Amino acid sequence: MSTPHDHPGATLAASAPAVPAWPVDHAADALDASAPLVALNRVSKRFGERRTSPVTRLLERARLAHPPAVVHAIDEVDFAVRRGEVVGLVGESGCGKSTLGRLLAGLLAPSSGEVRLDGRLADSLSAAERRAARLKTQMIFQDPYASLNPRLRIDRIVGEGARVHGLTDRAGFDDYVSAQLERAGLDPALRERYPHQFSGGQRQRIGIARALAVQPDLLVCDEAVAALDVSIQAQILNLFMDLREQLNLTYVFISHDLGVVEHLSDRVVIMYLGRVVESAPADEIFRHPNHPYTRALLAEIPRIDARHKTFAALRGELPSPLAPPSGCHFHPRCPHALPRCKTEAPALRGIAVRHLSACHLNDAA
């Protein structure tokens, strides 16, 4: 009897000073502890959609007017993040990782589908409840230079959100900001400087301090170390892990660097052109990749033991999200594509314990 991995090619060969953690939010006791912090159910995000008048629609049908170009960034994705885990989100540039991260953080609203926060439907929450729930999810951006307001001093950048939301008052503002900077590995004496007076690594630490200042449960890190030197990357990654232990944080770590994802993540989710194609614990993904796209990504990782091996890049280009392929989005580049792959989108389903994959080859095995 064949297994899910039997189809062709299925197997491929400085910490910050500790500061006291913030108080427990007893309001969370009423929530379902087993529910994910954030869950997306068949969520899609399309850019460029707009309502058109009946006259415009008639002109479009008569080919006298062009329909608006619509970018299909996210296509009916199911995604959940549970308390305390680190989820690595991986894929090529343009696959929708950053858009998905912004949906998780509440910076974008979905075009369709459901978003649940601590088990409750986001649309059913009051404005105050939605604001409090969104405060618990913060985002750390890729570019440490563009993510900070150059006209504000560091104390305002880090502490303004906490002050607005009542987490500190004017009298305790300086001490609160100093504690956040110290937690992120920065000297509190630097809090009166401006962003241009810091290096890239220091700016990323400022971004981390700003995110932590509002006492979140979930950090969405969008390529948070991609713009940094390798030595600085290691320091920031170690800081993330130290903060996870100190504050019981949950992470979604968006990256194209599989080495970083393998080092950090408990679970890895692979995306391709707006869809999740595989999800499994990190060890399972790297030892037993199932989807052809996942195997192609892993084959491109440089390895010392394979330095004499001829490198073969994944053929073809990522299709445009303006006109994604029918059926399985990966079929134009897949070396194992079946006829049904061109017309039928594979469902993301279980192939092993906690291992999901969206590939018709699993049915053919």
Automatic annotation (TrEMBL):
NCBIfam families: oligo_HPY. Coiled coil: none annotated. GO terms for biological process: peptide transport; transmembrane transport. InterPro entries: AAA+_ATPase, ABC_transp_ATP-bind, ABC_transporter-like_ATP-bd, ABC_transporter-like_CS, Oligopep_ABC_C, P-loop_NTPase. This is ATP-binding cassette domain-containing protein. It comes from the Bacteria. Residues 56-298 form the ABC transporter domain. GO terms for molecular function: ATP binding; ATP hydrolysis activity. Belongs to the ABC transporter superfamily. Keywords: ATP-binding, Cell inner membrane, Cell membrane, Membrane, Nucleotide-binding, Transport. It holds the Pfam family ABC_tran.
